[in-house]
Amino acid sequence: MAEMIEVHTNVEGEDRAVDLAHDLLSTGLAVSIDLAPVAGSGSEGGGMWKISVLTTGDLLADVEEQFGRAHGGAVPSVLTFPGAG
Fold this sequence. Notes:
Elements: E1 4-12, H1 14-26, E2 32-37, E3 48-56, H2 60-70, E4 79-82
């Protein structure tokens, strides 16, 4: 069984966060995703949104690629932790 990992990044705007979550789930790159607004980062629906993704280590590069697309091609800051499971 592949090692589960938890990957985090932030994106600008709720719509972009929801779209990214949908893309990751529909392509099978994530088994679970949590979205949350980043406190103090802007108005409701806008501002930064934290995305927490549960995936496998062998899919990390693909997840990071999707994160980059959500950031307009820029390489985002990504945190990775061993996942539970």
